[in-house]
Amino acid sequence: MINATKVKICGITNQIDAKLAVDFGADAIGFVFAKSPRQVDVRIAKKIIATLPPFVSKIGVFVNETPLVIQKIYQECGLTAVQLHGEEIPGLCKLLTPIPLIKVLRPTRLSDIKILNAYSMCSAFLLDTFAKGKYGGTGKSFDWNIAIEVKKFKKPIILSGGLNSDNVQSAIKKVLPYAVDVSSGVEKKPGKKDPDKLRKFIKNAKYS
Asked: In DSSP terms, which residues pair with 57 in a beta bridge?
């Protein structure tokens, strides 16, 4: 049965992977502009984005970056939203409005979600797995019960962290998120997607 869950494929670094993701049914493509094995150059991201269909969201991922740099890349690349994956404070988020913002939280316990009360200016919350010294792409999942509690904040929830074609249906059935986000779970290696894993993930996420 087809469900309404959106699918974001993150860590795209080349046009081939972007086209495959879109052809298989991805709703959003994520570009990492922070230091990472999946970091993409602004010029390359701009070229890839220019080839994407208008109804596919283009998300820029930043980690503890300045508002000026974020705004510049947002405008230059033609992004549709910005994902803040670091320790960005609410004041910085306010400076970035009216850009649609996705704030990332990497909770380890239920009490961690209280901080989200201060991020009402954000359009959505993305929940990822905490790993010391890493900001995503860990390939590990977290307690999905925490994600269920975050839904009380009345914002769209994007579930990430350790998702793959084998567990994405279980995650969707348990959490009922607005969207799921995957990077390492559909890769051959960091920055390069595996076509078969990509196809299976999107199919399983869309038909769960």
From this structure: 28
Query: Do 9 and 165 contact (CB within 8 A), yes or no?
Result: no
In total, the chain counts a number of residues equal to: 208
Q: What is the pLDDT along the chain (208 residues), one digit of tens a residue?
A: 667 899 999 999 999 999 999 999 999 999 999 999 999 999 999 999 999 999 999 999 999 999 999 999 999 999 999 999 999 999 999 999 999 999 999 999 999 999 999 999 999 999 998 665 555 555 567 889 999 999 999 999 999 999 999 999 999 999 999 999 999 999 999 999 999 999 999 999 998 6
Of 10, 77, 93, 122, which one is the catalytic site residue? 10
**What tokens appear for 92 in the block?**
């910085």
Strands annotated E in the chain: 6-9, 28-32, 57-62, 81-84, 101-105, 124-127, 157-159, 179-182, 187-189, 192-193
Q: Which of 17, 77, 93, 128 is catalytic?
A: 128
Picking from 116, 120, 141, 117, the residue whose alpha carbon sits closest to that of residue 129 is 141
Half-sphere exposure of 11 (CA within 13 A, CB side): 25
Annotation marks residue 77 as catalytic: no
Residue with tokens 């975050």: 150
Catalytic status, residue 10: yes
Residue 190, classified by CB atoms within 10 Å of its CB into exposed (0-12), middle (13-18) or buried (19+), is middle
Q: Which amino acid is it at 140? A: K
